[in-house]
Amino acid sequence: MKLSITKRAAPALAALAACAAVGSAAAQSAAPAPITGNAEAARDKVSMCIGCHGIPGYRASFPEVYSVPMIAGQNAKYIESALKEYASGARSHPTMVGIAKSLSEQDIADVAAYYSNLK
């Protein structure tokens, strides 16, 4: 059976196709913009980091005694990756898991930008 489009249906089908194309383009352009870290915005977010990571030679005693790494000057992508791993459970330090889970994606990017700019 051969389908034929009547002259009355053709404009409606063309309009429908145009709407579908616009909707598809809008859905593709609605992808979230990449998150960019803002070191200045992190100044109010790093207070929970300074107590351990801001003291040279600091050794923490929970859950065991270990040397806390200095993160000033560390690569931002590394800091972001580490925080995301703590938040996901891929890394398992209890204090860091709790802190990382409290941070948004923007907070993580901001904190990483802040510490990567310190020397």
TrEMBL record:
Domain Cytochrome c: 18-119
Cited InterPro entries: Cyt_c-like_dom (IPR009056), Cyt_c-like_dom_sf (IPR036909), Cytochrome_c_Oxidase_Subunit (IPR050597)
Name of the protein in its database record: Cytochrome c
Pfam name, any one: Cytochrom_C
PANTHER family: CBB3-TYPE CYTOCHROME C OXIDASE SUBUNIT FIXP (PTHR33751), CYTOCHROME C4 (PTHR33751:SF9)
Protein's organism: Pigmentiphaga soli
Keywords attached to this entry: Electron transport, Heme, Iron, Metal-binding, Signal, Transport
Record bears the keyword Cell cycle: no
SUPFAM superfamilies for this protein: Cytochrome c (SSF46626)
PROSITE patterns linked: CYTC, PROKAR_LIPOPROTEIN
Segment forming the signal sequence: 1-20
Membrane-spanning parts: none
